[in-house]
C-alpha cells in the first residue's frame, strides 16, 4: 500500500512537471509571436494613398458621368477600344515608374 502511494505521488509530480513544461513552451511561443513585424512597400503605401484620395475626391465629375449614362442609354456612346487600352497603359506606366 505504501509503495502504491509513493508511485502515485511520483506520477503526480511527473504530470505537474509536464504541465509546467507545456506552459513554458506556450509562453515562449506567445512571446515569439509578439516580435513578428510587417513592413509595407513604398508602392503599396502609394497605392493606399491614391485609393484614399479617390474615395475622398469631390464629386465634380457627376455631370460628366450623367452625360455618359445618357449617351449609353440612347445608344450614342461608342468608345474607341484602342484609345482606352492606350490610356490604361500610359497611366499604369506613370503609376509604377
Radius of gyration: 33 Å
The overall average pLDDT, rounded, is 84
Q: List segments where confidence is low: pLDDT < 50 over at least 5 consecutive residues.
A: none
**Beta content:** under 5%
Protein name: Negative regulator of flagellin synthesis
Pfam families: FlgM
Family: Belongs to the FlgM family.
Keywords: Bacterial flagellum biogenesis, Coiled coil, Repressor, Transcription, Transcription regulation
How does this model look, in words?
Keywords: Bacterial flagellum biogenesis, Coiled coil, Repressor, Transcription, Transcription regulation. This is Negative regulator of flagellin synthesis. Belongs to the FlgM family. It comes from Desulfonauticus submarinus. This protein has two domains: 37 residues; 55 residues, no CATH class. It is built from four helices and no strands. It is rod-shaped and about 100 Å long.
What brief labels describe this structure?
97 residues, mainly alpha, 2 domains
Amino acid at each position: 500500500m505504501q509503495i502504491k502511494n509513493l508511485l502515485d505521488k511520483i506520477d503526480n509530480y511527473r504530470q505537474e512537471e509536464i504541465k509546467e513544461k507545456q506552459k513554458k513552451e506556450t509562453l515562449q511561443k506567445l512571446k515569439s509571436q509578439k516580435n513578428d513585424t510587417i513592413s509595407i512597400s513604398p508602392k503599396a503605401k502609394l497605392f493606399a494613398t491614391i485609393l484614399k484620395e479617390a474615395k475622398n475626391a469631390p464629386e465634380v465629375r457627376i455631370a460628366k458621368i450623367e452625360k455618359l449614362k445618357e449617351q449609353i442609354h440612347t445608344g450614342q456612346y461608342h468608345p474607341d477600344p484602342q484609345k482606352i487600352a492606350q490610356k490604361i497603359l500610359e497611366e499604369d506606366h506613370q503609376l509604377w515608374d
